[in-house]
């Protein structure tokens, strides 16, 4: 009987450990899901902020850059499509919304770049303020996207790994959706200026690199030539002193009138 009771006690202890472990894993899934929802709300707020700023930006640009009609229409269409998808999904992320939001970011960025050809618009106070707010909004969206995707990665990893996947399957925890930008043009947005800069040094470097190399060769060849002229400079001062005393004695006897004052 004592052996049976000991075995039952071990089984009960193991069962309690498994129960407490299951509760801990389950609570971890709940915390991860809540963290994902909270991080997505921050992105959703910034996306809605961008929806409000884009119409004002379009109207401001339209007054100065009427030739950018196609770009303005594209930005307006993408903005309306993104807002409609946000309402249909009730603010939840999905791949379709992530794609349209990426296209909208690319269109807004292209519009701001095209405005560089209009100096009057660049000096407009309203446009500068809208540009600054949109830039700050885009930065916050990018930062929020990184934070959100990191939380999704950790949450999905727990769902897929053993033995936490047992609790995930038992409690019906599903994988979260990433909010990624799959458009390579959006990811390489700052590559326009770097392309111009990378072309300038290549043309200048071909003409400038030989010059410093030549100067360096001249500087290193000078020390090797120093030992040769050193004996020449030492012989020249030895030849000059004997010439000076030979010239001074004949000048003193020719000036005989000046000797008596010095004798006194």
Automatic annotation (TrEMBL):
Start-end of Low complexity biased regions: 201-219, 253-264
Location in the cell: Membrane
GO CC terms: membrane
Residue intervals passing through the bilayer: 6-26
Pfam families, alphabetized: LemA (PF04011)
Positions of region (Disordered): 194-264
Keywords for this protein: Membrane, Transmembrane, Transmembrane helix
Membrane topology of the entry: Single-pass membrane protein
Record's compositionally biased regions (Pro residues): 239-252
Family listed: Belongs to the LemA family.
Xref: PANTHER family: PROTEIN LEMA (PTHR34478:SF1)
Protein name: LemA family protein
Organism: Tessaracoccus rhinocerotis
């Amino acid at each position: 009987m004592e052996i049976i009771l000991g075995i039952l006690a071990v089984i009960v202890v193991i069962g309690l450990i498994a129960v407490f472990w299951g509760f801990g894993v389950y609570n971890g899934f709940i915390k991860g899901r809540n963290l994902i929802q909270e991080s997505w709300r921050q992105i959703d707020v910034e996306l809605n902020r961008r929806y409000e700023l884009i119409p004002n930006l379009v109207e401001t640009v339209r007054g100065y850059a009427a030739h950018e009609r196609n770009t303005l229409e594209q930005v307006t269409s993408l903005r309306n499509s993104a807002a409609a998808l946000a309402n249909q999904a009730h603010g939840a992320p999905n791949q379709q919304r992530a794609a349209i939001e990426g296209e909208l970011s690319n269109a807004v960025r292209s519009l701001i770049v095209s405005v560089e050809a209009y100096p009057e618009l660049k000096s407009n106070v309203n446009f500068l303020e809208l540009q600054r707010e949109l830039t700050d909004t885009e930065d916050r969206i990018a930062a929020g996207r990184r934070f959100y995707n990191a939380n999704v990665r950790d949450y999905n990893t727990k769902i897929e790994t053993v033995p936490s996947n047992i609790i995930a399957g038992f409690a019906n925890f599903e994988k979260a959706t990433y909010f990624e930008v799959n458009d390579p043009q959006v990811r390489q947005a700052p590559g326009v200026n770097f392309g111009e800069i990378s072309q300038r040094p290549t043309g200048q470097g071909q003409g400038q690199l030989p010059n410093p190399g030549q100067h360096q060769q001249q500087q290193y060849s000078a020390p090797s030539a120093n030992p040769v002229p050193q004996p020449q400079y030492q012989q020249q001062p030895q030849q000059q002193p004997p010439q000076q005393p030979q010239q001074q004695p004949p000048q003193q006897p020719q000036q005989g009138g000046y000797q008596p004052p010095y004798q006194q």
